[in-house]
Design brief:
Distance between the termini: 20 Å
Number of domains: 1
Low-confidence stretches: none
Strand content: under 5%
Number of strands: 0
């Protein structure tokens, strides 16, 4: 498992220059617009894209077929992508946390915003991975875009209705969010393992 994750990190290392340029670019935009949340959101999005890119690398190089000739199971290949996603998002969380504190945000607000951003990134990874394992990166991207478009439209439509969450619900939101992530994680991993188990290499 460790070797699979190191392999992904090594492949992603080739994109270091591009990632660094993007990070600096969006960092400047965030500073000039006085909106530290923008940087955290973009950084989290970049980490999610890196997870997608790691699967694209594997598909292009036919890595899965080669890996299965070694003492590596299909479940190892699947779980390594989830672990990679968590690690990358934790890096984004740490960078976002330091950046917000450096720009003068208070600790409580910084922690709350960073946790929400982290959970959002985790939910995105949990949502997209089963589709990528099922349809591949090329087809999967279109399906993912469609899903997020529909979700965005639903949230926008709900907002226009004037719907408001009760204070009682908002007070429970942190705990409920964590429970949703855990449930989504169990469903996502189970679905990915089932898909990959029957996938032809």
């Amino acid at each position: 498992m460790k070797g699979l994750i190191l392999k992904d990190l090594y492949n992603l290392k080739k994109q270091n220059k591009i990632i660094l340029i993007l990070v600096i670019f969006y960092l400047i935009i965030s500073l000039t617009s006085n909106d530290p949340s923008f940087f955290g959101g973009i950084l989290t999005f970049l980490m999610v894209m890196l997870v997608i890119n790691s699967i694209a690398y594997d598909e292009k190089s036919k890595w899965e077929s080669y890996a299965l000739t070694m003492p590596v199971s299909r479940s190892d290949l699947v779980l390594s992508k989830y672990i990679l996603g968590v690690l990358l998002l934790l890096v984004a969380f740490a960078a976002n946390f330091v950046f917000r504190l450096a720009t003068g945000a208070n600790l409580a607000e910084t922690l709350a915003v960073c946790v929400v951003t982290l959970l959002t990134g985790l939910f995105a990874v949990l949502l997209i991975l089963p589709f990528l394992f099922k349809f591949g990166v090329e087809k999967g991207r279109y399906i993912i875009i469609l899903i997020f478009f529909i979700l965005t439209m639903l949230v926008t439509a709900l907002g226009k209705t004037g719907f408001k969450l009760s204070d009682e619900f908002l007070s429970l939101l942190p705990v409920l969010s964590i429970l949703v992530i855990i449930l989504a994680g169990v469903i996502s991993v189970a679905a990915s393992l089932a898909i990959y188990k029957n996938k032809e290499m």
